[in-house]
Amino acid sequence: MDAIVKPWPKNAGANATGNTTATQLSDHVRAAPRPVHPRPSREEAEAAVRTLIAYAGDDPKREGVLETPKRVVDAYGELYKGYTECPADVLDRTFSEIGTYDDLVLVRDITFNSHCEHHMMPFYGRAHVAYMPVDRVVGLSKLARLVDVYARRLQTQEHLTSQVATAIEEILKPRGVAVLIEAEHMCMSMRGVEKPGAATITTQFRGVFRDDPNEQVRFITMVRGGQR
């Protein structure tokens, strides 16, 4: 296959009449979020962790937690790396040699972990992503990578589902997009109502998947049919 650099710009332009072009991308698709200014220093972040340890009732100077602030800040760099990544960059290479293929492409069981923006507690699960290509396809690993870009931020499951669908729709411009995410939320399992094992399912259908219920059924059947 020949890799084709995508022709869709990250920044919307304007035509001769001053109107914005149809290739405009949503802010969350076009670029990584702008960091807070001024961004707290690493020393300030570690001090905040020590404060939380003390608030929980422990002694920040105790040997067992002495290095915890450093480890927590290091972990944040991994857990929230999505704030430094751009969705448009993830999907910027496509392949045009697909013959006459015009049916759906489905990547099922994409595992992910995220943190809810309400309690900063983990939620994790699986995403199932499908699209119907027009003239070109994207590397399969890129769909999984896209899920991670959005998941590695403070999130709600509903917003995560919508953002993944929007990015694929705006960048690849397929005939349709379908996203189904199922996850368990620790803020519901470990606190509050304390109901471990409860699953939350969210969906987004765009294009032919939204307009044709039969395509929705086919997508869900393919997702559920292979699960063990």
Detail the topology: elements first, then pairings.
Elements: E1 3-5, H1 27-30, H2 42-56, H3 68-79, H4 87-90, E2 93-95, E3 105-116, E4 122-132, E5 137-138, H5 140-151, E6 154-155, H6 157-172, E7 176-185, H7 186-189, E8 200-207, H8 208-211, H9 213-225
Parallel strand pairs: 3-6
Antiparallel strand pairs: 1-2, 2-5, 3-4, 4-7, 7-8
Give structural notes.
With 228 residues, this protein is an alpha+beta fold. The protein has 2 domains: 42-81, no CATH class; 99-225, GTP cyclohydrolase I, C-terminal domain/NADPH-dependent 7-cyano-7-deazaguanine reductase, N-terminal domain (GTP Cyclohydrolase I, domain 2, 2-Layer Sandwich). It has 9 helices and 8 strands. The protein has helices at 27-30, 42-56, 68-79, 87-90, 140-151, 157-172, 186-189, 208-211, 213-225; strands at 3-5, 93-95, 105-116, 122-132, 137-138, 154-155, 176-185, 200-207. Strands 6-3-4-7-8 form a 5-stranded mixed sheet, sandwiched between helices. A hairpin with a 5-residue loop joins β3 (105-116) and β4.
